[in-house]
Amino acid sequence: MSAVELIYDGDCPNVHQARENLLRAFGLAGLTPHWREWNRADVEAPEHAHAFGSPTILVDGKDVADSKAADAACCRIYSGENGKHQGAPPVALIAAALAKSPQSGGSRRNFLALLPAIGTALMPKLVCPVCWPAYAGFLSALGLGFINYSPYLLPLTAIFLVATLATLAWRAETRRGYAPLALGILATAMVLIGKFHFDSNAATYAGIALLIGASAWNAWPRRNQTVHCSACVTDTNQTDRLKGGVS
């Protein structure tokens, strides 16, 4: 579980919205809500809590807005998805930080999902019966029996490629949007057409490279612009304080 911290001032009007966004981000990331809160005026607050404005959300010690310690006397303003300024970190920004955290394993899962697709794409097609004795001899030397897997290579490759595309599409709005998915679809088409229609190694390798690039792009941290001011932003949506998920 990632270490999540909410840093705030007791009189900051945007704390409630930060809690609400944090709770929604946990749900969007598919994680159990759990975080620690620090009131900067509390004597028990750690030293690093005094270096950030209010409200700030840290995931594994890193600001979700990818900003360094700011003027602690200032409330913070964040740039939302629609370009409008708001007084709390956006839900998508928090969810992206949770997803890319090393403890969440998001990037690792994306990479592991690539391996079956790449492996099947690189397997040779046994389309030449004259070559079968050579393959059989090689496999026999390894203690394995010869199997002509060519009839199953296309559906297996397609299945693994679709699984990879699914990882690019899953909660894409919390990471880099759907552009990496579009690149992954192009890469998938290049692999399938290049390998099974044109029998082109160049097209197959190019498609694999694009697929790896799409996965890396999808996992790349997204930056968000933040502005710091000397006056707090008024939160117009004051509701009851969220209790659930706070420890």
Q: Overview of this structure, please?
A:
- With 247 residues, the chain is an alpha+beta fold.
- It folds into two domains: 93 residues, no CATH class; 114 residues.
- The chain contains seven helices and seven strands, in the order βαβββββααααααβ.
- It has a four-stranded mixed β-sheet with strand order 2-1-3-4, with helices on one face. The protein has a three-stranded antiparallel β-sheet with strand order 6-5-7, with no helix packed on it.
- Helix 1 crosses helix 2, helix 3 runs antiparallel to helix 7 and helix 6 packs antiparallel against helix 7.
- It is elongated, with a radius of gyration of 25 Å.
- The chain starts with a strand and ends in an 18-residue tail after the last strand.
- The C terminus is likely disordered.
Strand-helix topology:
Layout: E1 4-8, H1 15-29, E2 36-39, E3 56-59, E4 62-63, E5 75-79, E6 85-86, H2 91-100, H3 106-122, H4 132-141, H5 150-169, H6 179-196, H7 201-219, E7 226-229
Parallel strand pairs: 1-2
Antiparallel strand pairs: 1-3, 3-4, 5-6, 5-7
Helix pairs in contact: 1-2, 3-5, 3-7, 5-6, 6-7
